[in-house]
Design brief:
about 350 residues, 19 strands, alpha+beta, 3-stranded antiparallel sheet, Creatine Amidinohydrolase, Chain A, domain 1, 2 domains, 6-stranded mixed sheet, about 35% helix, 11 helices
C-alpha cells in the first residue's frame, strides 16, 4: 500500500499541494484496502490517516494498511478537524468529480484555513494500470462468468421469461463464489435486444429470437464483464448476417488493440467494419470502457475521446448492431492491453450458438 500512497504524493507538485483528501470509495479501497461504505483518506507528505465510523472498528483492523486508523465518534470531517489530521497542510487536493456539495461545504466549514484544490479524474490514470494481482482477480471473476455462460446454455428454452433467465444468471454467479453481480444482468430477447441497456422483462423467449446476454460479477473486489448473443432455434437470415458483421468487428478490434493507441483509434476499427457492412447508424454506443474495482472505469474506448490507452489496462471490446423493433447483437470480451497486442480474458465461444 505504501507504493500506492506514494503515487498519490507524486501528484502533489502538479497541483502545488501538500496533501490530498480521497473521498471516492473505490479509490480508498485501491489505496489502503478498506471495503466499507464510509471513510475519508487523508494523505500527507509523510503520513496518511484513514477515518471511519464505529461500524467498521473491527473491519479496518483486518483491511486497512499504510494509514493510521481513526474511529470517529461523530462526523468524519468534524473528527478530522478536532484531531488536526491535516496539521501542517496548506493546499489540499480533493476529488471534484466524487465530492458532493454537502461534503465540500462541510470541509470548508470544518477545516478552515486550508485551500482546497479540486481535481477531476485524480487517480484514473494510475488506477487504470493493473498489477498482476489485480489482473489475477479479474481473471478469476471472468472464469466464474465463463462457467455460468457454459451452464446457462442448457437452461435457456422457449417460453422462459427474461426475468427467469436473469435470475438464474445471478444465482449461478453467486453459487460459484462471486461476492455480487457487477451490474444487473441484461437479458434482451427479440425486439428487446435492440435496446443496448435493456432490463429483463416478463417477455417469453420465442423460437427464432436472438437473445443478448450481458453479465458480470465481482470476485475479490474486481469485476468481470462479458456479452454473448445466442439464437433460439433458427434466426432470420439478416440476423445471421448482422451477427457475422458484429463478430468481425469484435475480432478485428481485438486483434488491433494495444497500449499507446487512442480510444478513438480502436473504436474506429470496429466502427468501420460495421459501417462497411451497411449498419453504421445502428452502432450508437462506444466500443468499450475500462474495468477493475468498478465495472466502468477510465479509459473510455470511444469515438469521443483522444485518451491514450495505457499498458496494463483492462478494457472491454463490445461492438453491437441494434435494429429497432426487431433484434440486437452484441459481442463483448475484456482485454488486457500489452505494448503490441491485447489478450482476451474470456474463454466463452463467440460463434453464433443456436439452442
Amino acid at each position: 500500500m505504501q507504493e500506492r500512497l506514494d503515487s498519490i504524493r507524486s501528484l502533489f507538485p502538479d497541483h502545488g499541494a501538500d496533501a490530498a483528501l480521497i473521498t471516492f470509495l473505490p479509490n480508498i479501497r485501491w489505496t489502503c484496502g478498506f471495503t466499507g461504505s464510509n471513510g475519508l483518506l487523508i494523505v500527507l507528505r509523510d503520513t496518511a490517516h484513514f477515518v471511519t465510523d464505529g461500524r467498521y472498528a473491527e473491519q479496518v483492523s483486518r483491511e486497512v494498511a499504510g494509514a493510521t486508523v481513526h474511529i470517529a465518534p461523530r462526523g468524519l470531517v468534524d473528527f478530522a478537524s478536532g484531531a488536526a489530521l491535516l496539521a501542517g497542510a496548506t493546499r489540499v487536493i480533493v476529488q471534484s468529480d466524487h465530492l458532493t456539495l454537502d461534503l465540500f461545504d462541510q470541509l470548508q466549514e470544518g477545516l478552515k484555513g486550508l485551500e482546497w484544490v479540486p481535481v477531476a479524474g485524480l487517480l484514473q490514470n494510475i488506477v487504470a494500470v493493473k498489477t498482476s494481482d489485480e489482473v489475477g482477480a479479474i481473471r478469476r471473476a471472468q472464469a466464474v462468468t465463463d462457467a455460468v455462460f457454459e451452464d446457462i446454455l442448457a437452461f435457456i428454452a422457449p417460453r422462459m421469461t427474461e426475468h427467469e433467465l436473469a435470475a438464474e444468471i445471478v444465482y449461478q454467479h453467486l453459487r460459484r463464489g462471486a461476492s455480487a453481480m457487477s451490474f444487473e444482468p441484461i437479458v434482451a430477447s427479440g425486439p428487446n435486444g435492440a435496446l443496448p441497456h435493456a432490463r429483463p422483462t416478463s417477455r417469453a423467449l420465442e423460437v427464432g429470437d436472438l437473445v443478448v446476454l450481458d453479465m458480470g460479477c465481482f470476485v475479490d473486489g474486481y469485476a468481470s464483464d462479458m456479452t454473448r448473443t445466442v439464437a433460439i432455434g433458427t434466426p432470420e437470415d439478416e440476423a445471421v448476417r448482422v451477427y457475422d458483421i458484429v463478430l468481425d468487428a469484435h475480432l478485428r478490434a481485438l486483434e488491433a488493440a494495444h497500449a499507446g493507441m487512442t480510444g478513438k483509434m480502436l473504436d474506429a476499427i470496429a466502427r468501420e467494419v460495421i459501417s462497411e457492412g451497411g449498419y453504421g447508424p445502428h452502432f450508437a454506443h462506444s466500443l468499450g470502457h475500462g474495468v477493475g474495482l468498478q465495472i466502468h472505469e477510465w479509459p473510455s474506448v470511444s469515438f469521443r475521446t483522444e485518451d491514450v490507452l495505457p499498458e496494463g489496462a483492462v478494457i472491454t471490446i463490445e461492438p453491437g448492431i441494434y435494429l429497432a423493433g426487431r433484434f440486437g447483437v452484441r459481442i463483448e470480451d475484456m482485454a488486457l492491453l500489452g505494448p503490441t497486442s491485447a489478450e482476451s480474458l474470456a474463454n466463452s465461444p463467440k460463434q453464433l450458438i443456436r439452442l
